[in-house]
Design a protein that fits this description.
alpha+beta; Ribosomal Protein S5, domain 2; Alpha-Beta Plaits; eight-stranded mixed beta sheet; four-stranded antiparallel beta sheet; globular; binds adenosine-5'-triphosphate
Amino acid sequence: MQTYTLIAPAKINLYLEIIGTRPDGYHELAMVLQSVDLADQIAVRANGTDEIRIHCDHPQVPLDKSNLAYRAAQLMAEQFPDSFENFGGADITIHKHIPVAAGLAGGSTDAAAVLVGLDLMWELGLTSTELQELGGRLGSDVPFCIAGGTALATGRGDALSPLPDLTHLYVVLAKYRSLEVSTAWAYQTFRQQFSNTYVSDVNTLENRRQRVHSGPMVNAIAHRDGAKIGQLLHNDLERVVLPAYPQVSRLRQTFEQQPVLGAMMSGSGPTVFAVAESQAQAQQVKEAVKAAVPDPDLELWVAKLISTGIQLASPIK
Ligand code: ATP
């Protein structure tokens, strides 16, 4: 049996606006999502049993049914019972490189990789749209993780419009190893504190969506203008996460003092990133931040913005 090895990139948010509440109760969001080349590696292999098994040596990654990669395989088994019966279960090995609970969609991208891997292994020939529809049932970041690149995401974050690539730019990412922020906590706290500003009327929601579609960030991306993009970085969740985690706030300030195009927290945090116009500049900023924050708990990465989502690494016999 073949092993399918997939590259599953992390995402950052260049823009995250919480517009209001949708009729279905979810938050209405407007985000610019961006894939970076910090990635997990996922190996999918038929195991000839009727079980889905997760293997991962990262202490924060669950190996049971709560793993999003497991849930992705379970969804595929439910949707394609004949294939599940023909091929049997699967061993899914996650080589974790993306920090966990970091606002980088680590679990979502692993799930996206399993959908793509099982589609290949079971020779289903699903379209990208079909895979994204399945992904949306697992979590709102999963559809983006399948296609990757640069995209405007509205609705729950799963209505995607592709944007021009930004592959000339780099980021420096930083996260305190022992610090985790729950995405659910961040959104709930935002709702508690700011729901008085929420839009819920359907027409107004649509207007606000359109405002982002034709707004300055999308325009800066259309011109691939790194300096403008850096100035326009925005994340509403900073309003609840930064006051609760002063360490993250200080880290963001340290980045802003560097020669970068802009700095921001990604998603629900606590990862902070800065945009740089070259790999050399990103590397220098990484060293400068490391020197300014001599804390062994702080991890830093340089990553390139990429135009792809889940990619097949190499089929191994
Ligand atoms: P998002 O930004 O999409 O909310 P995140 O990057 O903040 O996600 P994840 O790395 O996906 O967060 O982890 C969130 C929680 O999900 C973890 O605490 C972990 O217990 C659980 N989890 C389930 N499956 C995975 C997985 N494959 N990889 C990492 N964490 C997982």
